[in-house]
Design a protein that fits this description.
Blueprint (H helix, E strand, L loop, with lengths): L29 H20 L2 H8 L2 H16 L12 H10 L1 H5 L2 H16 L3 H12 L3 H26 L7 H16 L11 H21 L9 H13 L2 H19 L4
């Protein structure tokens, strides 16, 4: 596996040098912080209720505010239902796929199938839906961007682990073709998280991966490595493996990504 660059770009950025993805625990999400607020409010309420004279104040002027606070927290942290990926509005589908933890809790096979349905929907979008999608991604910043990176990273790790599990049983003479196919599938799987659908052919995607990996290798030799000089998929994969993969996944993914990197570095692929 190639050494990890000092600065690496997000799959979400047009210019990968604009933002970096830190390795380590991410800060609590908005939903987690709201849950903490709710727990704190309950604890303070219980303490006040234990004092007899304070009960009347609580039952009076504070009841409306408490009701409003509770309703607001409930609306913010309530489970988000899975939309119908074939019929629902595109905004609801993008919101569920990119911005909710509910999507992350689905089995990886189901997430892959839903991404496939999303790609089909995007390919059939009319002009108004295309404008809506552009506006959706143009407004992404802060915690929303972090959530998208989290969803993309978890999907990439889990999907690659599925491929890596089968890789050990592939005969040596078939491994190059298996690695090529896996690389193309992973690139296409993560493209919706960029707000785009990659319409290049499989060979064009492989050629771009080989070129990026070769440039990254040359840059490492000169000591001038940055995110533009390495395959963005491999860089992102390395980071997400360190952040969210289990020890068993890390072991499988390390071997698999090492061989995929070697394959992309081979002259002519």
């Amino acid at each position: 596996m190639p050494d990890q660059p000092h600065t690496t770009g997000s799959l979400l950025d047009d210019d990968p040098t604009v933002a970096t993805i830190g390795v380590g625990a991410h800060k609590p999400s908005l939903r987690d912080r709201l849950r903490a607020v709710e727990k704190g409010a309950v604890a303070r309420f219980n303490a006040a209720w234990a004092v007899p004279w304070s009960r009347y104040a609580i039952m009076g002027g504070s009841s409306v505010a408490a009701l409003a606070l509770g309703l607001g927290i409930y609306l913010a942290i309530r489970p988000v239902p899975k939309p119908d990926y074939e019929q629902a509005e595109m905004g609801k589908i993008f919101n569920y796929t990119l911005l909710t933890e509910e999507f992350n809790r689905l089995p990886v096979e189901e997430r892959i199938e839903l991404i496939s349905q999303l790609v089909d929907r995007v390919g059939d979008m009319d002009a108004s839906e295309s404008v809506m999608m552009a506006q959706f991604f143009a407004g992404i910043a802060g915690e929303a961007r972090e959530q998208i990176e989290r969803n993309a990273g978890k999907l990439l790790v889990d999907a690659t682990d599925l491929v890596a599990k089968d890789y050990a049983a592939v005969p040596p003479e078939e491994r190059d073709a298996y690695l090529d196919d896996a690389y193309v599938r992973l690139v296409r799987l993560t493209s919706p998280f960029d707000g785009s659908i990659d319409r290049r052919t499989d060979e064009e995607l492989l050629e771009r991966g080989r070129r990026d990996t070769k440039q990254g290798q040359e840059a490492m030799g000169s000591g001038e490595v940055n995110a533009d000089q390495a395959s963005r998929l491999l860089v992102f994969m390395n980071q997400q493996t360190a952040k969210s993969a289990s020890p068993a996944q890390q072991q499988r993914l390390t071997l698999f990504m090492r061989d995929m990197t070697r394959r992309l570095r081979e002259p002519g692929g």
